[in-house]
Structure to design on (119 residues):
């Protein structure tokens, strides 16, 4: 999967913004100001950090040990790094983006959830 496909899918979700707060090499995607993905732009293959339920994170790492790793520079219990070299099914990647987004939305406070609903 390339950066354009990944980025466009994320930006198509409600309330998502992008930025480069950690420098030009790391694209950060946020929903209502809360991070749900970081993509390293200077690595080949592309790598993306996504939030994940802790139990599911372990299962994914075991099943896809070469392409789903503990989150690089993140809380490894709650984040995975996906190596996007074409071996992961795009459907799975989109599902994991959705999962990360939904986990962050679930954790939003009432005010932010209401603002997201009203978008």
């Amino acid at each position: 999967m390339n950066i354009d496909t990944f980025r466009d899918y994320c930006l198509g979700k409600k309330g998502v913004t992008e930025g480069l707060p950690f420098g030009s090499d790391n694209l950060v995607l946020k929903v209502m100001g809360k991070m749900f993905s970081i993509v390293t732009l200077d690595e080949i293959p592309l790598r993306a950090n996504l939030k994940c339920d802790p139990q599911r994170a372990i299962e994914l790492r075991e099943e896809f040990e070469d392409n789903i790793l503990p989150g690089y520079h993140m809380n490894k219990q709650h984040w995975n790094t996906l190596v996007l070299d074409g071996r992961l099914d795009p459907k799975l990647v989109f599902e994991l983006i959705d999962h990360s987004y939904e986990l962050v939305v679930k954790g939003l406070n009432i005010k932010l959830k209401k603002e997201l609903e009203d978008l």
Observations:
- The helical segments are 3-11, 54-63, 90-106, 110-117.
- Residues 3-117 form a domain with the Aspartate Aminotransferase, domain 1 fold (CATH 3.90.1150.30).
- DSSP finds four helices and six strands in the chain.
- Residues 90-106 form the longest helix (17 residues).
